[in-house]
Amino acid sequence: MAGEPDAFVFLGKRGGFLRGNNFRREARWADALKEMGVKGLHFHDLRHTGNTLAAQSGASLADLKARMGHDSDRAALIYQHATRDADQKIADALSARVEDERGRTMASGRPHRLE
Q1: CA separation for the pair 10, 20 (Å, rounded)
Q2: Measured in whole angstroms, how far is the alpha carbon of residue 71 from the centre of its chain?
């Protein structure tokens, strides 16, 4: 149903799900791109962007596979691009963990075991 959180954005003439082989024609994809002033955007580009953003938000491999409808780890790994931003977040988290453990050691006078 329209307005539902899981409603389809593009529907066929009878309100049904569009398949890949009829999507461009039924959804009038070229007209929509032209109206937005966008050139060269393929529908699959939206899927790639959505899955890349999901991966960057912290989605696990299992989350991505479920979201994409794939059983293959290889397919889901495509969307987990390494980025400088992700590398910096990892480094910051590791630094925070080390500083936290250092603080515990200083407070107790004995080393704390990392878990």
Answers
A1: 12
A2: 16
Question: Is the distance from CB of 52 to CB of 83 less than 8 angstroms?
Answer: no
Which tokens go with 44?
A: 């699959």
In this prediction the pTM is 0.55
At 5-55, the pLDDT tens digits run: 777 777 777 877 777 778 888 888 899 899 999 999 988 898 889 988 998
How many degrees, rounded to 5, is the angle at CA 23 between CA 71 and CA 16? 85
Q: Please give the Cα distance from 100 to 10 (Å, whole number).
A: 50
Backbone angles phi, psi at 7, to 5 degrees: -70, 150
Single-letter amino acid, residue 113:
R
107, 91 Cβ separation under 8 angstroms: no
For the packed helices 61-68 and 43-56, what is the interaxial angle rounded to 10 degrees?
Answer: 160
What tokens does 79 get?
Answer: 């969307």
3-state DSSP call for residue 15?
Answer: coil
Task: Please return the burial class of 17, using the count of CB atoms within 10 Å of its CB with bins 0-12, 13-18 and 19+.
Answer: exposed
